[in-house]
Amino acid sequence: MTDTFRIALLIDADNAPASRIDAILNDLAEYGEVTIRRAYGNWTKPELKSWIQELHDAAIRPMQQFDLTAHKNASDMALAIDAVELLHSAVPDAFALVSSDSDFTPLVHYLREKGRAVYGYGREKTPAPFKSACTRFTVVEKLGDATSEETTDTAADNGTSHPRKPAATSGHALKRNARLIQLLRNSIAAAADDDGWALVGSVVARIHNQSSEDPRNYGYSSWTKLLKAIDLFELKDEGTSAIQVSDRRNGRK
Q1: Are 207 and 183 in contact (CB under 8 A)?
Q2: DSSP class of residue 222?
Q3: Which fold has domain 171-250?
Q4: Model pTM?
Q5: What is each CA distance from 159 to 100, 101, 146, in whole angstroms?
Q6: Region(s) of the chain under CATH 3.40.50.1010
Q7: Which overall architecture, per CATH, does domain 6-158 show?
Q8: For residue 146, is it left (φ>0), alpha (ψ between -120 and 50) or beta?
Q9: Is 14 helix (H, G, I), strand (E, B) or coil?
Q10: Cβ atoms within 10 A of the Cβ of 152, count?
Q11: What is the full per-residue pLDDT of the chain (253 aa) written as tens digits?
Q12: Any idea where the HTH OST-type domain is (predicted)?
């Protein structure tokens, strides 16, 4: 038997949607057990009212931090201090940070330098430095059967819910993402054999070593499905554990 992979979940409630916490916990279950669950905020503020029931249902410990000065909250500092303290006391195997605030980027760098994986979750508008610093960053709007925050709020008012799965980014739009395409091509080239074919599993491993990208951020459940949506690459042995990919620039028809 192997020891449980333990994750510390720290939530910046001021910069995270309460409606997505179940999807985040479900996603983290693929990595290990979330043994520490804390959410930081000034819980006297009406803006955080939507979090209260979610905290109870998900067994998340609310960490109270009053706003010490007007228009400035101290929750970020409290979260960062606790993360460092937990690193040395509870010694979790990984951290999950839920926020759309790039101020946490130095904290992510510190935790990763100490050998911990950091799984980031935030809105699509999250600044690139925070996204890139994480071991893996997942856009919460694209996670699971997401509903937009506007739809969720309206549904709550009406006493109904209308979940809808976010539309996948089209292959044409994916091809215009030069950074993503270069990442895929570089990873395929590094893993390819003499004939230009690379095991998708090896390609994904190389992607993870150099980027926090997640195919679900584009509406695809796996890298294989994302690669297939772009006609710049060719796949063979689909449906098997030995599925391979090649860059069409190699001249293969």
Answers
A1: yes
A2: S
A3: Nucleotidyltransferase; domain 5 (3.30.420)
A4: 0.75
A5: 28, 31, 18
A6: 6-158
A7: 3-Layer(aba) Sandwich (3.40)
A8: beta
A9: helix
A10: 19
A11: 457 899 999 999 999 999 999 999 999 998 999 999 999 999 999 999 999 989 999 999 999 988 766 556 678 999 999 999 999 999 999 999 999 999 999 999 999 999 999 999 999 999 999 999 999 999 998 886 544 444 444 344 444 444 455 678 898 899 888 888 988 998 999 889 988 999 998 998 888 877 888 888 888 888 899 999 998 999 998 888 889 999 988 765 4
A12: 176-249
CB atoms within 10 A of CB 84: 13
Packing angle of the helix pair 75-89, 105-113 (nearest 10 deg)? 10
C-alpha–C-alpha distance, residues 9 and 147, integer Å: 22
Q: Tokens 């890139």 correspond to what residue?
A: 132
Tens of pLDDT, residues 111-149:
999 999 999 999 999 999 999 999 999 999 888 654 444
- Residue ranges of alpha helices (H) inside 104-238 are 105-113, 128-133, 149-158, 171-175, 178-191, 200-210, 223-229
Q: Which of 243, 238, 231, 230 is nearest to 198 (CA)?
A: 243
In one-letter notation, the amino acid at residue 127 is P
Report the alpha-carbon distance of residue 253 to residue 242 in Å, rounded. Answer: 21
Query: Secondary structure of the chain: what % helix, strand, coil (to 5)?
Result: 45, 20, 35
How many whole angstroms separate alpha carbon 151 and alpha carbon 147? Answer: 6
